[in-house]
Amino acid sequence: MDPAFAVVLIILGLILAISGLIGCILPIIPGPPLSYIALILLSLAKNWEPFSAAFLIVMGVIALVVLILDYVVPLIGAKKYGATRLGLWGSIIGMVVGIFFFPPFGIFIGGFAGAMAGELFAGKAGNEALRAGIGVFIGNLVSIGLKMGLSGVILFFYVKEML
To answer: pTM score, two decimals?
Structure first.
């Protein structure tokens, strides 16, 4: 491989790995998949030497599982705290709206407020709506923590093998 092209791939991979970490907070950027693609680019740039095939497969499976859990964990948190379907939809709409008006923390504020609004609209009392909002908030925090943990580990391995 041309050394200049390898350098371009390594820089692009680093940008993707850092974007993956940022994407753990911003819902419009798929964090773990971008981080994983960075590993593939680094491997390609260095003739598949830095990482074994088994390592890349395991990291790919973990990235896929975390991507799926990103959608499931907030729902589990909401359901555990008694959210209804309207509360779940309210939290989704609130997260999307919140990220545009209060980035990056709007995802938390919007999800919490949306879940509460959905529960109030469904006829739940104030305390029950608050409890559902807390469940969505906790679920989102756990989900972001999982994504950041994986993307951080990938970034660590990327930088370690990049040099």
So the answer is: 0.82
